[in-house]
Design a protein that fits this description.
single chain; alpha/beta; Enolase-like, domain 1; TIM Barrel; nine-stranded mixed beta sheet; 18 helices; 17 strands; 36% helix
Length: 468
């Protein structure tokens, strides 16, 4: 670590240097040395090099640790549901690079990401590099992203679904009593299960009430192709359900909805028009994000804000939605969208189009705090999702920040510590490992060789290849 000047010495020298410039003089060598010597670094940033990458799996989510030649480590996390292989395959490509050059590394590896979970490795590496850069220079990530617009971040908690509206309302009301100022609930087609005359569909392989993985085509088939339709009786059930929940939680708190079912946009429009009167905060992912024209139809058909984006990688696909005026709120998941800097860029692009940015997040605290820093640095940020507010183990995984992580006002304070502002609690991590060990060595990923350039053929790496 570099030696530090005393506060008095620094100001004496910096004042003298400023005076010299103001009088038309020149800075002395001693004056110039005073400035870098005063920077509170945790290492020699210019000489920092990546030496290793390891992983630990906590509650089926993969945290990565990138180590360096100067004894500092940075943490990232693969998107929930993604494979740790997505990150480990990048190890050989980044060893020897300086993690402080975050954008340079990101541009080298972003070709290995794609939409949804396939971006998990690239984004995990990007998170870890920001953490390392912040630790090396002694500044928080939000500062490196341009400074912060807010000191605390509003969060909402996805609330477990109940088909009984009174119970759903009670669960949401408990969130309000805990201090949350934003709510979200599912509004799924399974609400109609067992009620005759509410749904029509081609019988056989389809199960309209199965949205997730299963032995049904409808759980994997995109919405326009299922033939599932909701009847007027079914729409009545939806409307009565939302009305009951709204009466319980009140009309002043924002209430968003998600997870409707694999039915087409026409029925999505009918549902949107039925629930318009309840002043919902948004309708989320009514159809897959890449059907831009269908989002335009939906947005123009109702007055409830339309939202999508949690599965989009990089800003270019968001821009298509912005330019088409297809959504009211963008919804990137930082562990998919490209990491901290790319997500801030997405937020800035959205702001230019009059669109706010909510953030999807279903990860462990490493991902949570990556989002906290990005949200702090993005002006048009609205609210951040948090899936684990009911899990006691969650807050124990990290140290260095106030506990509980979500304060009584439903916000998380933005940390001022270097990098992500957190350190892992080794004991708690080990108690919650769901597979494998604690950051075990990964030498098998050290020397993977591949020609990755996307144009022409590169010059050979070995002299003997050049001669042949």
């Amino acid at each position: 670590m570099k030696s530090e000047l005393s506060r008095r010495q620094f100001f004496r020298r910096s004042t003298a240097a400023t005076a010299a410039v103001g009088l038309g003089g020149f800075l002395t060598t001693k004056d110039l040395e005073a400035i870098p010597n005063n920077v509170n670094t945790y290492s020699q940033p210019s000489d920092l090099k990546i030496t290793d990458m390891r992983t630990v799996t906590v509650h089926r989510r993969h945290i990565i640790r990138i180590d360096t030649n100067q004894g500092i480590s940075g943490y990232g996390e693969v998107r929930d549901g993604g494979s740790k292989t997505y990150a480990l395959m990048l190890k050989s490509r980044i060893i020897g690079m300086n993690p402080c050059n975050v954008d340079k590394i990101f541009r080298e590896i972003k070709q290995f990401g794609y939409h949804a979970r396939q971006a998990g490795g690239v984004c995990a590496v990007e998170m870890a590099c920001w953490d390392l850069a912040g630790k090396a220079w002694g500044v928080p990530c939000w500062q490196m992203l341009g400074g912060k617009f807010r000191d605390k971040i509003r969060v909402y908690s996805d609330t477990p679904f109940s088909s009984e509206p009174g119970e759903q309302g009670r669960r949401l009301k408990e969130r309000v009593d805990r201090g949350f100022t934003y709510l979200k609930m599912d509004l799924p087609i399974s609400l109609l299960k067992g009620i005759e005359g509410t749904v029509s569909w081609p019988k056989g392989e389809l199960n309209p009430f199965q949205q997730w993985r299963g032995n049904y085509v409808s759980s994997e088939l995109e919405h326009p192709f299922t033939g599932i339709r909701i009847t007027e009786k079914g729409l009545d059930v939806f409307e009565e359900y939302v009305a009951s929940v709204r009466d319980i939680v009140g009309w002043e708190i924002p209430l968003a909805t998600d997870h409707y079912g694999h039915f087409g946009i026409e029925d999505g429009i009918k549902l949107a028009q039925r629930v318009d009167k309840f002043n919902l905060a948004w309708l989320e992912d009514m159809v897959p994000w890449f059907y831009t024209d269908q989002y335009v139809r939906l947005k123009e058909s109702c007055t409830t804000p339309i939202l999508t984006g949690e599965d989009i990688y990089l800003k270019e696909e968001f821009l298509k939605l912005f330019e088409a005026k297809a959504i009211s709120i963008c919804h990137p998941d930082l562990a998919t969208s490209g990491g901290l800097l790319e997500t801030k860029k997405i937020g800035d692009l959205a702001m230019e189009h009059g669109i706010s940015m909510a953030m999807h997040m279903a990860g462990n605290p490493v991902t949570l705090f990556a989002n906290i820093h990005c949200a702090a640095a993005t002006k048009n940020f609205l609210v951040l999702e948090h899936h684990n507010v009911d899990d006691e183990w969650y807050d124990t995984l990290v140290e260095g920040v106030p506990k509980p992580l979500v304060q009584e006002d439903g916000h998380i304070p933005v940390p001022d510590g270097p990098g992500l502002g957190i350190e892992l609690n080794e004991e708690a991590i080990k108690e919650n490992i769901s597979e494998g060990g604690y950051f075990e060595p990964t030498p098998e990923w050290d020397d993977e060789s591949s020609h990755d350039r996307l144009w022409s053929i590169t010059k050979p790496n070995k002299p003997e290849q050049a001669k042949s």
